[in-house]
Specification:
Length: 335
């Protein structure tokens, strides 16, 4: 890092520090009080009741009608959610300057509160899949273990601006994935799973709006640095948070297989990637952004044209006819 880059790095963290009260307000206004939050048990059989086993049987009967491709996609989504420790670790390394876990400062509060809300997602999907009998849960658990073991790298270069752009993009992508999974569950007749996916998607939508508001504030304070970071992040492409998943047994790359499944069944596609770019460019008003210094207008032009480029890629995209399905159990079971 040369002297100029080092100065830019420090300048960006000055902006981040100046947003502490703004972020603290987001904790109070965009996140929920823990006592008001839904919990996984709200959607699952109550094991304290006498009819618990009957309710588990009903859950398994509903889940039995869900296509293997959808179950595989759902497992991949759940594994991604379960790697939350890696995401909080990364976020805290970048934004929690004091390194005090119980700090009352805005960014530290946000990290804890956001993580607490996100934690329910993996818990709920994990319990649902365990009760469904549709998965080899030992293999699922091993994949989760290895994903957390392997770590997480959004390729944001320890840059807080790029990190917030990444999370803005990923929260929207995750929301889309859960919404589309819910639609497929509904189509298969599992209205409970559909409701679960919609509930999780609702959380992701609130988180997305918060991260986008953080970046909006950065664009106001430092338009040149913000658009440079946006361009840099998009030129590298957004890497998926679960890209380091593996199981050490499969001959094929299980993340590539998982991504191919989501593309094939319409859970998350290249069209969605293009649409997210278009949404963020419009949300942050990149086309009409003013106050840019010489040279940054090229970044502006690049970003405004980028979604069309990915739409052309989506038109040519071909998904393999046969894709390896991972984590499935024997579809035959009795109760």
């Amino acid at each position: 890092m040369n002297t100029k880059e080092l100065q830019e790095y420090h300048d960006r963290f000055d902006v981040i520090r100046s947003m502490d009260s703004f972020v603290s307000e987001a904790v109070d206004n965009k996140l929920l009080d823990p006592d008001d939050c839904w919990q996984p048990t709200d959607f699952l059989p109550d094991m304290e009741k006498e009819d618990a086993l009957d309710e588990v049987k009903k859950l398994r009967e509903r889940a039995a009608n869900i296509p293997n491709t959808v179950i595989t996609s759902l497992v991949g989504n759940m594994i991604t959610e379960e790697a939350l420790p890696s995401y909080q670790t990364y976020f805290s390394l970048i934004f929690n300057e004091d390194k005090e876990v119980t700090s009352d400062k805005g960014w530290a509060r946000w990290s804890r509160a956001w993580t607490a809300e996100e934690n329910r997602h993996g818990d709920l999907l994990n319990k649902y899949l365990y009760l469904s009998g549709r998965c080899d849960m030992k293999k699922v658990e091993q994949t989760i273990h290895r994903l957390i073991y392997n770590g997480f790298d959004p390729d944001a270069e320890k840059d807080p601006y790029q990190s917030i752009i990444y999370t803005s993009f990923q929260e929207r992508a995750t929301k889309i994935s859960h919404v589309n999974t819910g639609k497929l569950a509904d189509k298969a007749g599992d209205t409970v799973l559909s409701r679960i996916c919609k509930q999780i998607a609702g959380d992701e939508a609130r988180h997305e709006n918060a991260y986008k508001s953080f970046m909006t504030e950065i664009f106001k304070k430092d338009p040149n640095g913000a658009i440079a970071a946006f361009e840099k992040m998009m030129r590298k492409q957004i890497s998926m948070p679960a890209m380091l998943m593996d199981d050490q047994e499969s001959k094929s790359n299980i993340f590539i297989d998982f991504s191919a499944i989501t593309q094939k069944i319409g859970v998350y596609t290249t069209w969605d990637y293009a649409a997210i770019i278009d949404h963020l460019v419009k949300y942050w008003k990149i086309e009409t952004l003013t106050g840019l210094q010489d040279g940054f207008t090229k970044a502006q032009d690049y970003l405004c044209r980028l979604s069309d480029r990915y739409k052309r890629i989506a038109e040519r995209m071909k998904v393999p006819e046969e894709i390896n399905l991972h984590w499935l159990s024997n579809p035959k079971f009795s109760f």
